[in-house]
Every structure is written in C-alpha cells, then in structure tokens.
Specification:
The complex is a heterotrimer of chains A (about 300), B (about 60) and C (about 325). Chain A is mainly α and about 300 residues long. Chain A has a domain of about 160 residues: MetI-like fold (Orthogonal Bundle). In chain A, about 70% of the residues lie in helices and about 5% in strands. The longest helix of chain A has about 30 residues. The radius of gyration of chain A is 25 Å and the shape is globular. Chain B is mostly helical and about 60 residues long. In chain B, helix 1 crosses helix 2 and helix 2 runs antiparallel to helix 3. The radius of gyration of chain B is 13 Å and the shape is elongated. In chain C, helix 3 runs antiparallel to helix 14, helix 5 runs antiparallel to helix 11 and helix 11 packs antiparallel against helix 14. By secondary structure, chain C is mainly α. The chains are: A mainly alpha (about 300), B mainly alpha (about 60), C mainly alpha (about 325). At the A-C interface, helix 1, helix 6, helix 7, helix 8 and helix 9 of A face helix 3, helix 5, helix 6, helix 7 and helix 9 of C. Chain B: Keywords: Membrane, Transmembrane, Transmembrane helix. Chain A: Belongs to the binding-protein-dependent transport system permease family. Chain A: It is a multi-pass membrane protein.
Chain lengths: ~300, ~60, ~325
Amino acid sequence: MSFSVTEASGRTKWIAGILVVGYALITIAPLVWIIATGFKSGPDSIAYPPKVVFEPSLEGYVNLFTDRTRATEDMLEEAGPPETWYDQIARDQGTIITGPSRYGERFLNSVIIGFGSTALCMLLGTAAAYAFSRFRVPLKDDLMFFILSTRMMPPIAVAIPIFLMFRQLGLNDTHLGMILLYTAVNLSLSVWLLKGFIDEIPVEYEEAALIDGYTRFQAFYKVVLPQAATGIASTAIFCLIFAWNEYAFAVLLTSGTAQTAPPFIPTIIGTSGKDWPAVAAGATLFLVPVMVFTILLRKHLLRGITFGAVRK
Amino acid sequence: MSGFIKGLLRLRRGPWEMVASVLIAAGVVMLMQPIWITLYTWSFVITLTGTVMFIIVSHFPE
Amino acid sequence: MTDTPIDKAAQATPEPLARRIRGLSDRSIAWIFVAPTIFLLLAVNIFPLIWTIRLSFTDYRVNRPNREVEWVGLRNYERILTDPDVWATMQATAHFLIWTIVLQVLIGFALAYLINKKFRGNDLWTTIIVFPMMLSPAVVGNFWTFLYQPQIGLFNYVIAFFTGADPASFSMIGDVHLAPWAIVIADTWMWTPFVMLICLAGLRSIPDSIYEAAECDRASKWRQFWTITVPMVLPFLMLAVLFRGIENFKMFDLVVQLTGGGPGNTTTLTSIDLKREAFEKWRTGYSSAYAVILFVTVFGLASIYVKALNKVKER
C-alpha cells in the first residue's frame, strides 16, 4: 500500500465508518417506523412497549382508502357476509365500508399539480436559463437575483395577496391556480440550476452549428438540449419533489377539488381517534417515491440544494 | 483599515456592501433579541435601510 | 440533411416565416426566452408584493368586503413593532433558529468530516442520511407527533430506555419547556444532511497538495485542522448557515404540524402567528404590514446569501 498523507489510516476509516453508520441508522429509524406502522394493526400500533416484531396487517392501507362506519348488529346482518378481502379486514375491526376515501383523489391531485407545474417550469426555465447563459441580457445580475429572491420569500406572507388575487380570478382551489403558483415558485430553482448546467456546455458546439447554417432555435434544440439532458432531468426531479412536498400554499389556497396530499394526510382519522396505521400508510405511499427519486438524484443533490453554486 | 475607508470614500462596492450587510445583520439581531423592546421596535427601520442600501451599492464599481 | 423531426419541421416551414425566424437577432431571441419567466414572476410575485405593501397601510379585512377601507398610515407597523406578543414570537423563532443552526452545523460538519475519510461504502450511507431532507416536512412533522406520544411513542420509549425515566412521565409536545426542543430535534433530524452535504463539498474542494505541504512543514494534525480545514470550509459553512437561517426564519410546515404553535404560545413561530392573523382573524391590513416586515428581513438576508454564494462560486 502506498503511503499518502491525505489518505486516512485503516483504523481511522473503521472508526469513521462505524460513527457514520450509527448516525445513519438513527436517522432512518423514524422512516422505518413510518413504513412499519403502516403494516400494523390498530392495537399493535399503539402497544406499549412499542412493537418491533408484529404480525403484518393491511388494516392501515384498507382504512386509508375507504370510509367506514362503526357497525351495529343489525347493519352487519343486513350487509350479509363480507364479499372481498378488504371487506373482511374492515369487518374484523367491527366496521363496515361505506365507500372510497378521498385519499386517492388527493394523491392524484398531487400527481397532476406536481407534473403539470414541473413541465411548465422546465419549458420556461430552460428557455430563460439559455438566454441568461448565452446572451447579453440587460441587468442580468439584478434579474438573476430577483429570480432567486422570489424563492426566499416566506410562503405565508406571499399567500395573503395570492389568496386575494386568486379569489378575484376564480383560481382559488383549482388545479390551474396551483400549477401556476408552483411553477412561479420553482422557476427560480430551475433557472439557476439550468443556467449552471448550460454554462458548462462549450459555446463552440453552437458556433459550429451556426456556421453550418443552423438557426439559433435549431442550435438550441439540436445542440444544447441534448447536451443538457441530464441537467434538465435532475432539475425536473427537484422541481417535482418541491411541488410534491409543498404544504403552506396548499393548505391555505386549496380545500376541496385541488387539495394535494400533504394537507390531507394529517387530517386522516379513524372511527375512534387517530388511526395511526392509516396515517402511516398514507405517508409511506407519499414518501417512498421521493426516496426513490433521491437515489436517482444523488450525484446532483448538492447542486440542487445550493441553486447550482456548489458543483463538487 | 485605511483601504476600507478609502473604498467608502471612492464609492467602491466591496466596503459599502460590507456596511449594508452589517446593518442588515444588526437589524435581524435586534428583531429577535429578547432583551430590550425598544431595539425590537427600531429593528425594521435598520433592516430596511440596510436592504435598500445593499440594492444601491451593489451597482457601485468594484 | 438528416431526417430528424426538427429538420423536417424546418424544411416544412414556409420560406417567409423561416426567413423571419432566421432573421431574429440574438437580442430578440433573448427577450422571447426570458420574457415568459419574468412575466410569470411579476404576476405571481411582484404584483402581489406591491398589493401587500398598499394593503399594509389600510385596515382592510377580507371577511368584510363591504366595509369602507380606511387608510391608517403607519399604524399597522407601529402596532406590530410595539406589541410584546409579536416580539415573543420573534424570540420563539430566535430560539428555534439558533439551536437548529448550532446543532446542525456541529453534527453536519462532524459527519462530513467522517465521510470524507472515504471508508468503504460511504456513498451508500451518505444517500441514506440524506433521505429526511427530501421528504415533505408537513407529512413527516405529522408523524413525529406520533413518535413524541407519551407512553406509546418511539422517541419517549428510547429516551426512557436510556435514562430510566417513565416514558409516560413526559410529553415532548405537551410540555411548555420541552415543546421548543421538540421542534429543534425534529428540524435537526431533517436538515442536518443539508449542512453535511455542503460541508462535504467544502472538504472535497481542499486540494491534497496543501496538506502535503503542511506535512512537510511538520505541522501537527490538530494544527492542520484549524489552519487549513476549518478556514477552507468556512465559506461553505457560511452558505449553509445563511440558507438554514432564512429557511428557519420562515419555518411553517414542519412546526405547524408538530405542535401547531402550542402549548400556549411557546412554539408560535413568526409564520404561524402571521397565518393566524391573516387566515384565522382575517386582519388583512395588519397582516400585510407583518408580511412586509418579514419580506424585508428575508430580502436583506438573501442579499447577503447571494454574496456568500458568489464567494463560494469563485472557488
């Protein structure tokens, strides 16, 4: 083994490794607990001492997707024997399914608003980032700062006038309103990040294309966009995650038709008190996609959280 | 230190931005300190002055 | 010519139109590209901002649209800036802000330092540590209330296991003294990876040659740490601190789900107080002035942040 002053010794590496792994285990414990609670039965979820080993149950997921009512003897008789496995699970708790819950809708709203705003944001953001990267835009630094500062603003403070404006325009509690709002909030991130990515593409490629008789638009489409593909993809995932996670605007500006999942999940309650397995099931379905995206993004995380300033 | 004052006199960006930053920071500290309510009352004026100043002086030459 | 759809589209474009597109100067293309973004930001940010400033000088209330709106001058600002209750929310915010930053910087830097030892599998563990930061604060905050339950909560159980206290004897979110720490712990859990990632970038930006030179000068490891590592990482740390500072100054989602501002007003951070004034008491004029104060503060901090950002960029 070659000796290097900057390379840590084997023993140091072991100690560092053990400490970091220890921290990692502590830090994912709450997440594992969420996922585990989703598969517990009601009594198991609130058992003391907390149950680490338990019999898995789909009660949480059934309760998440259905509305139930506490069943009396008469009602059970009237309804006849349970027809499906989820009926059975509901009966076992002494309840009868009265219909689907609103979780599905809320989840779908999150998907529509998330993808809608991301698409719009990438369209506008890529164009603006290209212009900021390649052309002399008057007051460029001021505009870039202005764009960034829009993201820093406290959402509650912004929500007051947005609420008034949306009410005037009839955009309160609509998908379109939320898509436009999230696009505006995410534009700052996408412009800053994409500008960084496009800055890294050598200008010579485009110049060569222009000399070959391409127009600016063609050069943009055929030379710059393919080169920036990874950058665009990771920026899009960042925008999607933000829109997916956003809570403050959603809770203030939506109540019914366009409500997304984050304001909805905490309101899930059972027929008697808080139904933690159902909440955990809802949270699991909502959080796991983001974890998957995080793994995809791991190379670009740093860029994303620093608006493209730190590149590693 | 004399370089700093010279920069201020010549309306250079660096030292003026420093002054504005210090004002903003002072304003934020005044806003949240638990000691004296009078400081809290005047914090906003200080932060506002610092912020406006920052916008102006960031256009001074380097 | 190749046969990609774009080429076909280009060939299919009528000649006069094609000439016009080709004829577009870079300057006009720049405007076409930038304008939609600027327009949307003006409509969704600047226009409302101006509206807020205007409302902040009135006693307008959204829930009474037919009432005559009066200009009250600076009275809203005066009331907010002399109100001990609002001042108290600022102090609650300060407690939250200072402790989260201290803890996150200490733990985040330590983790980054350890990960930078490049033990086997460090990439995998870094990704696992980063998870909490990417998740929805509201959903996670809601679940932390479950972890904090006396008796049945995992957090209470673990603390009780190590200290021997009765897990039902304390309630992290029900106790006036513990609640401010409950939100600090949850936020630290969530955002330490952020500080860690930035510190890691700082550590990796230090060229090996500097350490090698120090080694030749027989500088001790301890000395190297304080004279090379810390100063070189400092700009990155500044960036992380400023960003966390701004984010936690306007903290809303995590805390509102965790404690809802209670018990009493012990965890009523500024944003939560503002939300009550604006969307529960509907004092629109008053809360607009409140919002303007927050705007200016954040805008000021953001200016310093961008300065720090440029400093790091030069590295």
